[in-house]
Amino acid sequence: MRDRGAGPHARRRAGDAGGRRGIGADLTKVVIGHSGDTTDLDYLMRVADKGSLLGMDRFGLDVLLPFEQRVDTVAELVRRGYTDRVVLAHDASCFIDWFDAEAKVQAVPKWNFRHISEDVLPALRERGVTEADIDMMLVANPRRYFE
């Protein structure tokens, strides 16, 4: 799997955060958003190993990274034991004033509020992700984050 996102600045900041240098943030209360824009498992595991949650949060934006690669990355993180470090989301919105509604449907037809339940979860299940894993990513991990 190759890196298709997470530029050098994000990589440097994640590396700094892991040692709690600088401001001393509690990394268990940090979600690294848009982590799903990369397939670089080594990078994602380094970030997760330092305490942060991986926000796999742009499902439906296949123009940035194809659906199959996003799902494969999450399934592989689960297989490698990182289920407790992953949260899932679609990053869709009710209103966007910079994207004409018809153009949005044409460019990113799966960028909607049903995509995770209708497409992502079945694809994860096909790859061996269990209901317990899904519950952890959608319920337990967000709950722990907000407690």
From TrEMBL:
Classification via Gene3D superfamilies: Metal-dependent hydrolases (3.20.20.140)
Chain segments carrying region Disordered: 1-20
Transmembrane region(s): none
Keyword Ribonucleoprotein belongs to the record: no
Keyword entries, A-Z: Hydrolase, Metal-binding
Keyword flag Metal-binding: yes
Superkingdom per UniProt: Bacteria
PANTHER family: PHOSPHOTRIESTERASE-RELATED, PHOSPHOTRIESTERASE-RELATED PROTEIN
UniProt family annotation: Belongs to the metallo-dependent hydrolases superfamily. Phosphotriesterase family.
Protein name stated in the entry: Phosphotriesterase family protein
Species annotation: Brevibacterium pityocampae
Upper lineage: Bacteria, Bacillati, Actinomycetota, Actinomycetes, Micrococcales
